[in-house]
Design a protein that fits this description.
The protein is α+β, with helices and mostly antiparallel strands. Helices cover 35% and strands 26% of the residues. The chain has 14 helices and 25 strands. The chain has helices at 25-37, 65-70, 96-124, 137-154, 160-179, 189-209, 296-310, 336-350, 382-387, 415-439, 464-468, 473-482, 503-515, 589-604; strands spanning 2-3, 6-7, 48-55, 58-61, 73-79, 84-94, 225-229, 237-243, 246-255, 261-263, 270-272, 274-279, 322-331, 360-368, 374-378, 390-396, 401-408, 453-458, 485-488, 493-498, 523-533, 536-542, 545-550, 571-579, 585-588. The strands form 6 sheets. An 8-stranded antiparallel beta sheet has the order 4-3-5-6-17-16-14-15, sandwiched between helices. A 5-stranded mixed beta sheet has the order 7-8-9-13-12. Strand 3 and strand 4 (58-61) form a beta hairpin. The termini are far apart.
Length: 605
């Protein structure tokens, strides 16, 4: 912002290039807030925004991409000078007190930004326009007095669909009465609908403040939960998570390294190997409408659930699979994104994914009377979300938080109420995790028979060319011989996968033998006979490396003719027993057979 003493708070020493190391969302939010503030458009701001990271235990305002990647927290906060109204958090199981301190630190920056925008507004001197909204206080009073008592009764019906139908019929009768063409004093349908919506909100708030939640629950009570795993036999992992009238059917698919999605965005291209897709079909809320591409809501809910689970996924060197999680919402009445987190954990464990810790999520709502009293609502239903003042989604493990998303309809959320909500969410999360553990508490010891088999090895990057071979001849030959797919990274990491069988293990042996110097005492299985002589056979133990197996070493008995034991092209098992001064290899099939007999006897005992 331009001030009398020049440009304020510009760190010129960083250089313009440093701007591209940071995410642009905060700049966009602040810029939009400033533009609205100095325009004639009605606006209740200004609002500010701040992104906060945490590296080595220290908070970093406006962190770079690398600092976010290396740290254990990425917090985006927006709000007014007095209180916050938007929070998004991705964290690595940080405790509630750390998150609360981070939010307080970010709010301090937001307050400073708001003060700067206010300064700009004073210099511009803009006058706001007064919004024109059609209203009729007399009509509103008449309709509310007519339907409030009836609406109060209907809103206490336990069944969601029955309650919804009864309220709809009441509203249709009211609209017909006040908007009929036969009525000389007919009102506009839009005005009556707005009055009915306001009346419904007032009744819902009244019930909640009286402690009358749908289904008779208390403020901190979670709806009944049921968990099932392995319900889809053909998928690699599956689960059905139900909480009240919200249900998520989750399936997990495991893929190889080449199945990762290539992301080509504003930053450097990268491969994304963990993805969660969230689907919200119309039937989940009892509606009939076209099923088209995913919208803003599905993308946002999927991103939140993905963030919550990705923090606890195993490292690539421990579990190199590409993982796709799909959450299909079969019924929805409040916080289906958090149901996706819970169902996602169950399905991942069912698929054998070694998660660091199980993750669960819950949503906390809020209702207030405008006189200082507020009540937090654990596990909010759809109606409590719609007419309430807050939807505070918190996901995490027994140790701490992995993701947060706050939506609030009030002008702001005070810090002490936010801390209270975090504690309420922690208690609920632990309760849900216990219930989930009853269904499955550890990852399956074995992957699905339908999942690809995958392993990784590391070699010296200088030996990559040897594994690939001229024109890719060597790696193609290994893949054809073992029926596998092989991916080689620049750092020397090799991923080997196959569908069924143990080809991945054979390919691993070939590559290890190819990249490891011949070792005396080592057994080489599947060595190929490449030349037959009267005195023995020459055997290729690994591509390009041959040794002599003398006729006396072909069998533990007398051998008259070499071809009585093996012929050209045969695959035999040999043991390297000597490397002479000239680097020639001496092999023994007899020693390999003796070692195998010894091993078999030990296993029998």
């Amino acid at each position: 912002f331009q001030a009398e003493d020049g440009i304020r708070d510009v760190e010129r020493s960083r250089g313009l290039g440093d701007v591209y190391k940071r995410q642009p969302d905060v700049l966009a939010m602040i810029g939009a807030s400033a533009a609205l503030t100095i325009s004639k458009i009605p606006f209740q701001g200004p609002i500010g925004a701040c992104r906060l990271g945490r590296v080595d235990g220290e908070f970093v305002v406006n962190p770079t991409h690398k600092q976010i990647e290396d740290g254990d927290l990425s917090l985006l906060l927006g709000g007014r000078k007095e209180a916050m109204n938007m929070i998004e958090v991705g964290a690595k199981a940080l405790p509630e007190n750390v998150i609360a301190d981070a939010i307080a630190a970010a709010q301090k920056t937001v307050r400073e930004v708001c003060e700067m925008i206010e300064e700009l507004r004073e210099k511009v001197g803009v006058e706001k326009e007064i919004p024109l909204v059609e209203s009729d206080e007399e009509l509103e009073s008449k309709i509310c007095s007519q339907i409030s008592d009836k609406l109060y009764e209907l809103k206490q019906l336990t069944d969601k669909q029955q309650r919804k139908t009864a309220v709809k019929e009441l509203f249709e009768q009211t609209i017909e009465e006040y908007c009929s063409e036969e009525n000389e004093a007919a009102s506009s349908k839009a005005l009556v609908k707005r009055i009915l919506g306001k009346a419904e909100g007032q009744v819902v708030k009244r019930l909640l403040l009286e402690g009358k939640r749908a289904g008779g629950r208390g403020y901190s009570e979670i709806r009944p939960i049921s968990c099932e795993v392995g319900i889809l036999p053909r998928t690699h992992g599956s689960a059905l998570f139900t909480r009240g009238e919200t249900q998520s059917l989750v399936s997990v698919t495991l893929g190889t390294v080449r199945d990762a999605q290539i992301i080509d965005g504003l930053l450097d291209e990268y491969a994304q190997n963990f993805t969660l897709h969230y689907n919200f079909p119309p039937f989940s809320v009892g509606e009939v409408r076209p099923v088209r591409g995913v919208g803003r809501r599905e993308i946002g809910h999927g991103a939140l659930a993905e963030k919550a689970l990705a923090a606890m996924r195993p490292a690539d060197d421990e579990f190199a699979y590409t993982v796709r999680v799909v959450s299909d919402i079969t019924e929805s009445n409040g916080s289906s994104s958090m149901a996706s987190v819970c169902g996602g954990t169950l399905a991942l464990l069912d698929a054998g994914v070694p998660m660091i810790k199980p993750v669960a999520g819950i949503s906390i709502g809020m209702i207030s009377d405008g006189n200082g009293r507020h009540e937090l609502l654990t596990d909010i239903a759809g109606e409590e979300d719609h007419y309430g003042e807050m939807d505070f989604k918190v996901a995490g493990t027994v140790d701490g938080i992995t993701a947060i998303q706050l939506d609030i309809k009030a002008e702001g959320l005070a810090h002490d109420i936010m801390v209270e909500a975090l504690e309420r969410a922690r208690i609920a999360r632990l309760e849900i995790l216990k219930k989930m553990a009853e269904a499955i508490s550890e990852p399956r010891s074995e992957l699905s028979v339908y999942a690809p088999k995958l392993l990784s090895i590391e070699i010296d990057p200088e030996l990559i060319g040897k594994v690939i071979g001229p024109g890719g001849k060597m790696i193609k030959g290994i893949q054809e011989q073992t029926d596998t797919s092989i991916e080689i990274e620049e750092d020397g990491t090799i991923y080997i996968s196959c569908l069924g069988g143990d080809g991945h293990l054979k390919a691993k042996e070939i590559i290890e033998a190819l990249t490891t110097p011949p070792e005396v005492g080592r057994i080489y299985e599947g060595a190929k006979v490449v030349s037959v002589k009267d005195f023995g056979v020459f055997v290729e133990i690994v591509p390009g490396v041959e040794g002599l197996c003398h006729i006396s070493e072909l069998s533990d008995g007398y051998v008259k003719n070499v071809e009585d034991v093996c012929k050209m092209g045969d695959l035999i098992t040999v043991k390297l027993i000597l490397i002479d001064d000239q680097g020639r290899l001496k092999l023994s099939r007899k020693a390999a057979l003796a070692e195998k007999k010894k091993k078999d006897k030990a296993e029998e005992k």
